[in-house]
Write a structure and sequence with these properties.
The chain has one helix spanning 2-26; strands at 34-39, 44-45, 50-56, 65-69, 72-78, 84-89, 95-103, 107-116. By secondary structure, it is an alpha+beta fold.
């Protein structure tokens, strides 16, 4: 009876080891899905829309990407197309914003963007043509 119990225990240990090894081999690497993240523009302002792009590996097209701004989700999760997931982002506050792309809770990358107040146009509108009427100041002759 002891030999039977020992064989059964040995079989159980072998099965456990095989399952554990398969799980380790099948588990995705923490950085294997989201490879990078970028935000369009070089200067960022409140109430201005930017494009956030996450680069992902080709094998991760089945998983949608969730984008967050300081931990708050931006829109709905986005599907991957041609190795990229993109979303529009419009910051509502100034200061540092950690923009993160997360795929299936196992892979993420982030970038910190500093958002400034939207500049105001001196003169109230900026709807001019860029030309000025000099009222004849340049008439005359040079001689």
């Amino acid at each position: 009876m002891k030999i039977y119990q020992a064989r059964r225990a040995g079989f159980g240990l072998t099965a456990f080891t095989a399952v554990a090894a398969a799980a380790v081999l099948a588990a995705p690497q923490a950085s294997a899905l989201v490879q990078g993240i970028a935000v369009s523009g070089s200067t960022h302002y409140v109430d201005t829309t930017y494009t956030v792009t996450a680069d992902v590996t080709v094998t991760s097209f089945l998983f949608k990407v969730t984008f967050t701004d300081n931990g708050t989700q931006i829109g709905e999760p986005v599907p991957v197309s041609d190795g990229k997931a993109t979303i529009s982002w419009t910051p509502k506050t100034t200061g540092a914003h950690e923009i993160k792309a997360v795929q299936e809770l196992i892979s993420s990358k982030s970038v910190t963007i500093t958002v400034a107040p939207k500049p105001t146009t001196p003169g109230g509108g900026g709807t001019g043509t860029g030309s000025a009427d000099l009222g004849g100041l340049l008439s005359g002759s040079a001689g």
